Amino acid sequence: MKKQYLLIIVLACLLPFFHGCKKETGYKTLIITGQNNHDWQASSPVLKTILDETGMFSCEIMTTPEKGGDMTIFDPDFSLYKLVILDYNGDSWSDKTNTAFFDYVKNGGGVVIYHAANNAFPGWKEYNEMTGLGGWGDRTEKDGPYVYYMRDSLVIDNSPGRGGNHGKRREFLVRTRIMDHPVTQGLPARWMHGNDELYSELRGPAKNMQILATAFADSAAGGGTMRDEPMLMTITYEKGRIFHTAMGHADKDGGPAMQCSGFIVTLQRGAEWAVTGNVTQKVPFDFPDASGVVLRRDFREITFEEALENIKTYDVGKSTKNLVCIQHHITNLSGDEKGLLEAEKTMVGVLLSTNASVEAKKLLLRELSWMGTDYSVNALKDLVNNNDLKDEAQFALQRLQAGK
Ligand code: ZN
């Protein structure tokens, strides 16, 4: 017995050692939250998941005291981090913390401003210079111009009026304005974003700021300006780099605004740029285009199985990104007969299921027509009697049999 106790004590003593030795991978990142007019308990873990997923960042979440609490105890050591993400819109920090953050950025620290963080600290001059543009908090012309695109020209508009507005949440088209910035390089010129608030009428000093992407705030949804409003921005502040995304209003589980692969990928790329000034991440196959929104329900690049599940609701005119994922998976399996047969069986399963759309089944029939085996031939025989699918099924069968 004594020996066992001794072993337990020794192991217990070693635990902190092992923990301490755990290799730190990625850029140390601090996510600051704790007060927000948004559901920060939902959004901050999602931000952490999104960045940790890249393998390039190692995130920790730090919460401030609650509203009205003693802010002097919120005193992070910014020098420990390469990146600070603000998911915060609340009480002012202490002067000491403000100065420490200011010094961190001045000396080259990276920052990501996320959604309502651009509402924060309306009276803090340096903060507003770091965010470029902000909204609400009684922001008016005293805080800087409106900045937007109108008929493809950048407009700096000093007219008086409120800062910050948005209409009803909706899916909207994002337009890339600078195609050769490291963050946007390789992204489509236009892509659909998941259901979100479209921030408009932001205003601020807008110094050393580049607008990477905009979205058109139509008046039909309310709060519309009929202008192309900034969605993604970069700001440089002395040696520091700031990436600012106005998107990503969170629901309980993140919701479509945060699940949108366009939001996720631009955040990951923007974060890397804020740390290094460069982006090494590849644009993933599931980045949306203008044809439709792509949601990553668990924030990872979607898998073959998820794509097959998603494609069940496919209809003409909707995004075919899920099909691209399926094709990608099949290409990767080239030469792996067992893997290909497994994929084929799963696809045939969807084809014979009752909960997939006719248009989805047509897409799958087209794929199976060139990669199918006897397994598909047997499964397709009955489909030639299906009124909705008989043409496509016949075509696939002929192709498969001709290929033998
Ligand atoms: Zn919001």
Give the full name of the CATH homologous superfamily of the largest domain.
Answer: Class I glutamine amidotransferase (GATase) domain
- Tally of helical segments: 12
List of distinct ligands in this structure? zinc ion
Structural class: alpha/beta
Largest sheet: 9 strands, mixed
Indicate the CATH class of the largest domain.
Answer: Alpha Beta
Structure summary, number of beta strands: 11
Quaternary status of these chains? single chain
Mean pLDDT: 92
- In terms of DSSP E residues, the strand content is 15-25%
Q: How many structural domains in the coordinates? A: 2
Distance between the termini: 71 Å
Please provide the ordered H/E string of secondary-structure elements.
HEHEEHEHEEEEEEEHHHHHHHH
Low-confidence region ranges: 11-23
With strands numbered from the N-terminus, the spatial order across the biggest sheet is 2-1-3-4-11-10-9-7-8
| Rg from Cα | 25 Å
Supply the CATH architecture of the largest domain: 3-Layer(aba) Sandwich
What general form does the structure show?
elongated
CATH topology of the largest domain: Rossmann fold
State the share of residues found in helices, binned by percent: 25-40%
